[in-house]
# Entry
Amino acid sequence: EGIITPEIFRAMMQRAGDEIIAERDWLSELDGVIGDGDHGVTMEIGWKAVQGALANAEEDETIEGSCKRMAKAFLDAVGASSGPLYATAFLRAGAAVSDRLNLDAEALAAWLAAALQGVRDRGRAEPGDKTMIDAWVPAVERAQQAAANGSELDVVNAARDGAEAGMKATADLESRRGRSAKLGARSKGHIDPGAASTWVTLRAMAAALAE
Ligand code: ADP
Ligand code: MG
Ligand code: MG
# Structure
């Protein structure tokens, strides 16, 4: 049985919300360079809704149940393109661990992989298009490697480090999706804001689990 209980999972998500809110201005600045400048605000709105929804969770609510609650809260709160992307990610991630009470290393990697697949199915972006996918893909790859013989903390730390590397690498990419696509080659040299918020989220989950 894994160490991530539903209660610890919800604490990880609350922390993700806290760190997204703390990084709001940086995320909006990044979006101001290649998008419409609202990414920090849209993520803050979405994560505050998630935090409020999780605060109402029953004590015995499963991780899948909490993920459904998060998806609904995020979708209802966020009108920007990230709203349905994250809502689908949370729904799929929860469904991937529906047979679990607690998450072990493998289940955590499966949760992350399903979140990525949800974003891909919903947004249809490919790796290299300069989106949040470019942080999620290396995060999931490294998480799955770590899950082969590592702990839950190894998995989430690997995901965090993969997301950071992927985020940094988005600076070299030319955007082919979302608002920044109309900049074409001028989007080069700048980090994608959705990739940045992906890193912030995974970094916060790792920090919460380490405590
Ligand atoms: P909006 O562009 O509607 O203002 P946000 O600013 O909240 O929405 O989010 C922008 C981010 O959304 C981008 O930086 C990118 O990472 C991500 N994004 C946009 N379109 C897609 C897509 N089709 N698939 C995955 N991610 C996407
Ligand atoms: Mg935007
Ligand atoms: Mg917008």
